[in-house]
Amino acid sequence: MRLDKLLANMGYGSRKEVKQLLKQKAVTVDGTYVKDAAMQVDPEKQDVSVYGERVVYTEFVYYMMNKPPGVISATEDLRDETVIDLLEPLHQHFQPFPVGRLDKDTEGLLLLTNDGVLAHNLLSPKKHVPKVYYALIEGIVTEADGEAFARGVELDDGYITKPGQLVILKSAQQSEIELTIQEGKFHQVKRMFEAVGKRVTYLKRLSMGNLKLDKDLELGAYRELTSEELASLQNTD
User: What are the residue numbers of the active site?
Assistant: First the structure.
């Protein structure tokens, strides 16, 4: 890889700015100052440093975010703040995108990456990747609702959902539930409860496949996936 391309890809500036770094003797390869922007380097075998700090080459990035309400799951929007707007500029540089979507008022686990293959595998209907949600429901949730979800319910557009698993945490005028589904239709959890005559007042995604929301992540915060978390997602059947 060309040296200037490597440094530009890793967020050290435009090609023009990288050339300025080279002129300033800020860049070394294996301990030797380099001025040739076109120099071919292997970042995995050679020590490329800027101002003494080693450049760790990364092609793909994987971020777990605790999405806050009021922010949309998109890469850009002319009106609303997006989840990408919450990222540091260096992390935005890698052009990650949200894997799937959470509604604007829904919070919780959201994966952002620039790995298109992984994203496709997690979203493919053929993979049946489970997603677990916690919700507050206006109305008394019953075992009959759970049985209906287990069979699949008909949404307002006539679509019949795949079976979902409902766990009732509290049955009252305001019920608490956890729901596991393997699809991601538009407003699906809300529409499933509307199909049984109830309304979702709060919704949070807890997990996607083997990836569980880090309880220490505050709303709007994010972090890189651990190697174990990434491996568990890559091994999704």
Answer: 103
